[in-house]
C-alpha cells in the first residue's frame, strides 16, 4: 500500500467543518487504500501561544474527533507529533537547507503574522512549514491529503526533498499533494472572503464539530448571503451562498445543480433551514461519539501509545539515514 501522511493542529477545543470536509472526509476513504499516518500536530500548535492545560486537553479532544469522523486506529497510525522526537530533529536539518527568502514567501506565515504583529510573532511560526516538510518526509509519504490552503507548504516540501536528494543522494520520496478540488476550501460563514479557521478572531462564522446542534442551527441561519436573492452558485459575486451550496453538496451527496433546481424561486431562509438539517445530520452523531470517547481518556492514551511505537519505528529509520548522509558522526 502507498504511504500517506497528514495532520491537524490541536489548536482549538474542536475541529471545524472546513477540517472535516477539507481533510477528514478524504482521510477516512484513503485509510482503506493506503498505509496512513495521521498526526496530532502539537509541535505546530505551539507556534502560536497555547495555554498548557488546554493544549493537553485539546490534543485528546482532537484524537477523539478523528476517531468519531471514522479514522480507525486499527487501520491508521494515529499519533501525537511530540511522541516522535525525529520530527523536531529533522526540522533542524531541513532548516539548514531552506533559504530565508524561500521561507519568507509562505502566505500562511504572512497572514498569521500580520494578524499578530511582528513583536508577538515567533520564529517558530516562520519555520512552521519546514517542520511540516519534515513530518511528511520522515514517513516517505507518496501522497499528502490537505486542503487548498496547504498547497504552498507541500510545494516547499517537494523543493526541500529534491534539494536534499541532489546534495546528499536519494533519501526522500518527493510527495504529491492530494487535494479534492471542489471541496478544498470552506469559507467562514460570517466572512466568506476568509477560510474557516480554528484561529479566526471571531467564531460566529465557524461551524465547530463539537457545537451543540442548536448552536449550529443558529450560525447557519445567520450566515452572510447577499441582497440579490436566489440560491445560485457563483463564487465571484455570491461568495456566501456559494460556500453554503458547497457544504450542502458535499454533505448530502447531491450535485450543486440539483440543489439549485430544488430551491429555485425559494428564499434563503428555506435553503438555510434545509442546510442546517444536513449539517446537523452529519455532525450530531460524530459529536456524540467524540464525547463518548472522551469519557474514557485511558483508552485514548492506549491508542496513542501503540501508534507512537509504530510511528517512531518508521521515522527514526529515516532520520538515521539523514544523519548518516549529511556526515554527522554516529555514536557506536
Ligand atoms: P489554524 O487556524 O490553527 O491554522 P486550521 O483551521 O487552519 O487551524 P489546521 O490544523 O491548520 O486547521 O489544518 C488541518 C487540515 O484542515 C489541513 O489539511 C487543512 O488544509 C485543512 N483545512 C483547514 N481549514 C480548512 C478550510 N477552511 N477548508 C478546507 N480545508 C481546511
Ligand atoms: Mg491552518
Structural class: mainly alpha
| Distinct bound molecules | adenosine-5'-triphosphate, magnesium ion
- The total strand number stands at 5
The largest beta-sheet arranges its strands as 1-2-3
Span from first to last CA? 34 Å
Fraction in helix:
55-70%
Largest sheet: 3 strands, parallel
What's the total helix number?
A: 13
Radius of gyration, whole Å: 21 Å
Whole-number mean pLDDT? 96
Which outline best applies? globular
* H and E order: EHEHHEHHHHEHEHHHHH
The low-confidence runs, each spanning 5 or more residues with pLDDT under 50, are none
- Tell me the β content: 5-15%
Provide a descriptive summary of the structure in words.
This protein is mostly helical and 332 residues long. Helix content is 55%, strand content 7%. It has 13 helices and five strands. The strands form two sheets. The chain has a three-stranded parallel β-sheet with strand order 1-2-3. The protein has a two-stranded parallel ribbon with strand order 4-5. Helix 8 links the parallel strand 4 and strand 5. Helix 4 packs across helix 7. The model has no long low-confidence stretch (mean pLDDT 96). Bound molecules: adenosine-5'-triphosphate and magnesium ion. Adenosine-5'-triphosphate binds next to helix 1.
What key phrases describe this protein's structure?
332 residues, mainly alpha, 13 helices, 7% strand, binds magnesium ion
Quick take:
The protein is mostly helical. The chain has helices at residues 17-33, 42-45, 52-68, 86-95, 100-104, 107-116, 123-138, 151-168, 213-221, 239-252, 256-262, 268-294, 297-326, and strands at residues 3-8, 35-40, 77-80, 143-145, 176-178.
